Every structure is written in C-alpha cells, then in structure tokens.
Amino acid sequence: MARSRPVSSWTLFLSLVVLIGCIIVPGLTVKHENFKTCAQSGFCKRNRALADDASAQGASWSSPYELDPSSVLFKDGQLTGILIKTTTNNEKFRLPVILSLLESGAARLVVDEEKRMKGEIELRHNSKINKKRYDESEQWVLVGGLEASKSAALNADAEAGFTKVQYGPDNKFQAVIRHAPFEIEFQRDGETHVQLNHQGLLNMEHWRPKVEKEGESESAEDESTWWEESFGGNTDSKPRGPESVALDVTFPGYNHVFGIPEHADSLSLRETRGGPGNHENPYRMYNSDVFEYELNSPMTLYGAIPFMQAHRKNSTVGVFWLNAAETWVDIVKKSTSSNPLSLGSKSKTDTQTHWISESGQIDLFIFLGPTPQEISKTYGQLTGYTQLPQHFAIAYHQCRWNYITDEDVKDVDSKFDKHQIPYDVIWLDVDYTDDRKYFTWEPLSFPNPKGMQEQLADSERKLVVLIDPHIKNKNDYFVSQELKSKGLAVLNKDGEIYDGWCWPGSSNWVDCFNPAAIPWWKSLHKYDKFQGSLSNLFIWNDMSEPSVFNGPETTMPKDNIHYGDWEHRDVHNVNGLTLVNATYQALLERKKGEIRRPFILTRSYYAGAQRYAAMWTGDNQATWDHLAMSLPMVLTNGIAGYPFAGADVGGFFHNPDKELLSRWYQAGIWYPFFRAHAHIDTRRREPYLISEPHRTIISQAVRLRYQLLPAWYTAFHEASLNGMPIVRPQYYMFPEDEQGFAIDDQLYLGNTGLLAKPVVTENTFTTDIYISDDEKYYDYFDFTVYQGAGKRHTVPAPEDKIPLLIQGGHIVPRRDRPRRSSALMRWDPYTLILTLNKNGEADGTLYFDDGETFDYERGAYIHRQFRFRGSTLSSEDLGTKGPKTAEYLKTTAGVTVERVIVIDPPKSWKDKSTVTVIEDGAKTASTASLDYFEQNDGKADYAVVKSPNVGIGKSWQIEF
Ligand code: NOJ
Question: What sequence ranges are listed for the domain DUF5110 (predicted)?
Fold first, then answer.
C-alpha cells in the first residue's frame, strides 16, 4: 500500500498558488514587442528629436520655414503662397501653401511639396508608385463644409512681415500669419486660441536622392531609417525615401484636450513626454489589431480619428489633421504665468501638441468654437454625420463567437422569449462560413440558413453575419476567382497580388480604393450571390485595419500598392473606411427597389466612417478595469464625431463572474451600440443562463434600454443632424464648470437630462454622482432628490440598481410595455416623464419614423416638441411636411400617450383629480384623471395623468 506523504507547507503553498491561479483570471497583457514605440518608428523618432533640439535651444531656436511675401495672394476666401524651407546646407525647397477660410467658420491649411507635386523625383527600386504626396484622403473623408467664406477679407492693418485675414461669423475670427519664421495664430474676438508652428516644429521632409556614401557619413543626420526600415523581421522598402510631415499646434490657456481616438485611455488626454501619471510615448494612430490591448495607454488601436477638441472654461476650439498615414501626437502642458510670483489665478496652462505623420500633405482644419456643440456641428459638416440607423440597431444585440449551428441560433432565440428578455439581433461570427469563405454557409452546421432567418423574422429580429476583407486564396472559390480575374486585389510592392495570412489561411485583400471594387462588392451581397441570405441579414466588417497575422505589426506591409499606385503607407488609416463605404452601398439596395438603411458594424475606422457604420472597441477583456475603460472610450468617440459606439458587453476574453456581467449590462445599456460578445473559448453567457438574482438584474437592465428607446432614437436623430454625441461627458454639458472637465465615468443621454453613472468596480454598493448645476436631480426609479452644484452626491447602488438621475426641466418619452423585440413596440403608446426646473418649466423632444427606410427624408416621421409652461403641457410639431407626411401620420394615428408622470409636481396639485385635455381637431376638450402620490424620506412626490390618450403625432395641450 502506498504511503501517503505528509503534506509539506511548500506543497500547500504551491497548491494554493494553483488554486488562486484558477480563481483569478490571469491579466492578459499586450505583446509590446509586436508594436512600435516612437523610438522604433523612424519618422516619429526624427520628429521627436527635432522637438528635443528645439526645446534644448530654447529662444535661439528658429523654424527654418518662411512664407515668401511676394508669393502671397488672397482671393475668394483663399490665401495662397509659397513656403520656403531652408536646410542647414542652405538648400531651399518650395512648399505651396493654401489657407482656406470657410463659410462654416473653419479654416483649412494645406501644405504640399512642389517637387513631388510635379513628379520631379526619382523612385527607388524601379518602383512605379505615385510620386506625389497622397492628396486623396479628402475624397474618402470629406462630404461638405468646404464653401469658401464670402466675407473673409485681408486686414489692411497688418504690420510689416504679417498677413492678416478676418473671417468667420461677423468676421470675428482672424488668422494672423507671420512670414518669417512662418507661424499662424488663430484669434477669436482678438484673443489667440490656436497657434501653428509656435514651437517651430513644422517639418516637411523634402525629397532627396539617396547618396551612396563610402565609409562613415559626414552628415550629422541619422539616415538609418530614411531608405529602408526593419521591424520584427519585416523590411519596408520606402521607394520615396523620408517624407514625413509634422506641425505643432498650441492651445494657449487650454488645460484639457480630448479626442484622437482610438486609445484605451481617459477622456482628458494625458501628457506624453513622461513624468508621473504621464505617458512616455505619443498617442499613436495606426489602425491595428492589437491582441490583448492594455489600458491607460497611448498605444494605437483599431481606428483613428485625428480630431482634437481643446477646452477651457467657456471655450472650446479644435483641430482636425486630415492625414491617412501613420500618425503620432505628442501632448505637453506648460504652465505659464504672467507674473512669476503670482500663484493660482494668474497662472495658466498652455497645451502644446505635436502632430507627426509618415507621409502625405499637411492638411489641417482649425475650429474656433466657442462651444463644443459648434465644433461638433462644423466638424460634421466636413466629415458627415452619423447615419440615422435602423431602429433595431439601437436595441440589444446578442453575439458570441460562435453560435455553432442554425439550430443553436433558433434555440437561443426561443430561450430569450421563454425568459422574456427582449433582444433584436443575433450575430454569427466567422465560423458560420464554409471554410472561412465569406458569402457561403458551412453546409453541415448551417444547412438551413433561410429557416433560421425566417424564425428570427417572426419576431422581427435580424441576423448579422461577419464578412471580412480578406478573401481565401483558393481557386475553386468564386469570390477569389472574381477578385483575381477582375484585378481588384491589393498588390505587393512588386505589383503581384499580395498574399497574407488571416482566418482563412492564405488570403488576398479586396482593394476598396478601386472604384471597380464597389459594383463587384455590391454584386456579392445580392440575394442570388449570397445565397441563403434574407432581407433581415446585415453585415459585420471585422479585421479591416487590415489585420494580417503574418504582416508587420499584424497589418499589411507599408509598401503594398493600392489603386491609383498609392502605397499602403499613404492610405493605411482610411482602409477600413473604404470597406464600409463599399458595404454600405452594397446594403442600400440588395435587390432592385428594396432600399433600406444599411446596418454595418466596423472595427477599423477613420473620420467619416460614422456615415456608414457603428463601431465597437474590439477585443476587450472580462475585467472590471476594461468595463471602466469602456466609458471614456465611448465618450471619446462621441466627441470625435463617431457616436454610434460600444464595447463588447461582458468582455471578449475570459469569463466574467455574475457580478461583473450584470454590472456590465447595467453599463452597456448606456453604449449607443449595445452588444454582448464573447471569445470562442469562453463559457456561454446568454442572460437567461445566468442564475438568479443576476438573470433578473440583467433582464431589468435590458428592459430599461428598451423602455428608453424613444429617447435613444431621438438622440440618434439629433446626432444625424448636427453631430452631437449621443452620450455626452460632463464638460460637453457644462462647459463652464472646471471641476467637471476631466470626469469620464458618468454620462448624459442626449438632451434628456438623464445622467447615468454605471458601477464599474467590484463589491460597490454606492456611488458618487457629480452634479454641476443647481437644478434638482431625481433618482429615476424612486425620485429621491439630489441637489447641490459642484459636488458629488452619494447614491445607493445595490447590485440590482443602476445609478441614474434625471435633471429637473425635462420631458422624457419612453415606452413601458415590454416586448420580444423593439419592432414589436412600434404601435405601443408612450409614457412621458416630466421634471420641472427651478422656473417650474420643462422641455423635451421626440423623434420617430418607420425605423427602416429613407421615407423620413420625404416627411414620413414624427418630431414633437413637448413643453411645460405655467400649468400647461403641450406638444408642438417640429417637423416640416413632405410628400409622405400625411400617409405616415395616418398609419401612426392610433399611437397615443398613455400616461404622464410628473415628478415633484406643485403641491397644489394634491387637490386636483383631473386635468383638461385639448387635442387639435377634437370638437371638445376632455378630461383625464390625475393621481397625486406623496412620498417621504427625501423622495419627491409625483403625480400621474392616466390615459390622456392624445395622439403622439398630434398637437395637444394638457391643462393641470
Ligand atoms: C476579431 C474581432 O475583434 C472579434 O470580435 C471576433 O470575434 C473575431 N475577430 C473572430 O471573428
């Protein structure tokens, strides 16, 4: 008989370690060695070195760029001229510059290089690529807003050596251009808000031939990354040599800068030149599939929007750096003081930013605000607003990698119903395909895709399937054959079809820069090509950075070639945008006459992609820290003009415990794009599988999202008209409240006054909500009152409670009848929630339409303004009539307001039992009952009007 050994304390310790290891999810960390730091990226390093040099030289540093005064012309809102760059060898290079003053109040500075424009350069390695600096980003990104200012004029008072142009609303803006050294200051009302080249870091690496040197180079410059650059075993051949562009942008007196997604970092961006709490590297924008990405980092992620807002008390300004190449942004905050002995109020902070791109032109837009709303609007005029999505798209999406059969999908679908949890969309990840060939179905596991979609359609649900831009390189695959025979693939540097490794193994990539790729891509989405797909199927474009498993930094080589003979280097960051542009067109009309709003999800994006697709933050992890980070990430996207954003609810990698999962749903309902997703190796976690009480907690959260869908859709509509974020950070709502500027863990839903602060830490049962103003805020569920400006208020947050307040002064539309999917709520009546502000008034809006077609463009919608003034609640029309208005109003005639809940009503209402209801067109007024409910313990009273039954599309008044 074997003797059992006594358990040593060492064995015990080891067992404990193993046990703890099993319980605690190991934190995954990114493989830093796979992605460049600035020091490992030649052009970034060179430009940072230049900045270091400038800062070391201090006042004796002078920018070697001068505007040739004799070249300056001003005509029709445009100032043109030639910048001269003088090198240390006294060589001179001509850089044509255009400063356009736009009717919108924005200004645009474009700088190019004459030699490259004229093609007077030699390419290396017999390359046939385009000799110019890439100047086509705008074709993908800009959709308007470029009308020249009619009133812009030269200011005759300019001192010698300066040119001044007045422009903007009432000509209150002025661009002050110093010729030598070249600098531009943008002023509003005589005060400087944005300075270009104030630090003297403007740099345009001019073309030069490679001079073969023997032995040690005499040159002081480090040429090691000019002609070739290697990283991780890949060598970039650089046929055009060094060509980076860089410029410093200073925001004098501005302490906060926001934007430039995508990074897993705070909303208020950090400094990037080291020091406690700061980053060591600039924020990088080079769309990448970063496996196991880290938090609080300036590392690049999947998307890029080089748009930044700078904010200080009561003033917001911004810049948009339109460049599709790899870009880095350094941020430094400098405290200055007009009087060196003064502390506090007299001292101010300047934020200095340094923008560095690998190639292309300098193309910079400058916005002078002064409000964040104006900046959103003007930026949106240029890059387009979020498309008003189909209504289902703003409801709950159920995804995982992978639902394994069509029966599995049907089963999940039925179980949601059985457990009475609403959802609208179920998703299929990559493995629904036959051998990872897109536009096909795995025949054994998905033998009946139509039957599956039909079951979903029974409850008006949708299916989203994944279609990636890599096409399996297989001769018997029709998509691959067509891609090759039509010449639509991205090429390698030698002009052959580029082959790389992705999900299907050996793959080729569709080049959506090629106009001919669009009709082809459209044809693939037609019902006869994508067989087995029905009209309730929509598309997920993933891996579109593009992700290439065996490529440099998990993407394509920079010397790959796209349509127009542009290098991948030039266009990398807009690549994902070109794919969703093609998919958008494909989904607009899958069969003749069936025109509907497309729904697409994209992982990679650039400025402008908001016109086509929703985005999500990629492969996060099931940890509390990732849950917390999702809020600043979504908020940042919103202020960067891309509000239809979300994060994988539950976390992509790993298994969340029940508490984390429920808290994630409670937070996820505040993402404009609300989807649960999980990695293939995770345990199933559909909400109905979770044991009680968490199943109910999650169901309640999802139901709250559904209840508030009218408010969400209204906020989306607003975003589609003026670029306003759908969920908004504190500074955006209260631009005067300095204490709120850095807050990024609570958010406002549109204009509703709803203020949510999801719990994002474990074992937390209260939370502090910061309130900027002096209005009363009411707990959404029990009407507890919180009031007091400029401080935090402790709000209970037991596991089953979402900390949610509503500010006084709002009228919020919602729908209270739970249904299986949002489409089934279409004819349901509305409830209005009303809170009064200090003046006893309230306002709110409601927008809705058929949620599917473009008929709203022809008047088929309802847009109402609700107001409470004196003792009257009214509904007025905000819409303008179109050819489809009357018909739409007829179809919605039966939709009414079934209830009005007034929180904290005037005490005099205690004595009332009815209200008078007057509806436009009704012969007589009617009455509805009013019940008054008293509460105590800090909870406000409330009153309920039952069944006023006024038509939602009609004008009416309710007299209290
Ligand atoms: C990467 C995506 O980020 C993830 O969401 C997806 O599940 C996998 N690709 C598989 O398609």
Answer: 834-870
Superfamily of domain 40-209+236-337+346-383: glycosyl hydrolase (family 31) (2.60.40.1760)
User: Do residues 901 and 942 touch, judged by C-beta distance below 8 A?
Assistant: yes
Q: Is 159 one of the catalytic residues?
A: no
pTM of the model: 0.96
Tokens coding 214: 């023997």
Cα-based angle 659, 660, 661 (whole degrees, multiple of 5):
90
Separation of CA 714 from chain center? 18
Q: 474 near 541, Cβ under 8 Å? A: no
Over residues 281-306, the pLDDT tens digits come to 999 999 999 999 999 999 999 999 99
In a mutational test of the pocket of ligand 1, which residue from 288, 292, 543 has the highest number of ligand atoms less than 8 Å from its CB?
Answer: 543
Segment 517-569, tens digit of pLDDT: 999 999 999 999 999 999 999 999 999 999 999 999 999 999 999 999 999 99
Decide if domain 728-959 falls under CATH 2.60.40.1180: yes
Residue 37 CA to residue 45 CA, distance in Å, equals: 9
The domain 9-14+387-723 having CATH identifier 3.20.20.80: the answer here is yes
CA-nearest of 948, 863, 941, 949 to 905 is: 941
Tokens of 83: 């910048």
CB 536 within 8 A of CB 453: yes
How many other C-beta atoms can be found within 10 angstroms of the C-beta atom of residue 436?
A: 21
> Which residues make up the CATH 2.60.40.1180 domain(s) of the chain?
728-959
User: Would residue 33 show up in a list of annotated catalytic residues for this protein?
Assistant: no
Give the Cα separation of 141 and 458 in Å (integer).
39
CA distance linking residue 69 with residue 104, whole number of Å: 28
Burial code of 759-782, b = ≥16 C-beta within 10 A, e = fewer? bbeeeeeebebbbbbebbbbbbee
The pLDDT tens digits for 826-850 are 999 999 999 999 999 999 999 999 9
Q: CATH 3.20.20.80 occupies which residues in the chain?
A: 9-14+387-723
List all residues whose CB is within 6 A of at least one atom of ligand 1.
401, 429-430, 466, 542, 603, 618-619, 652, 677
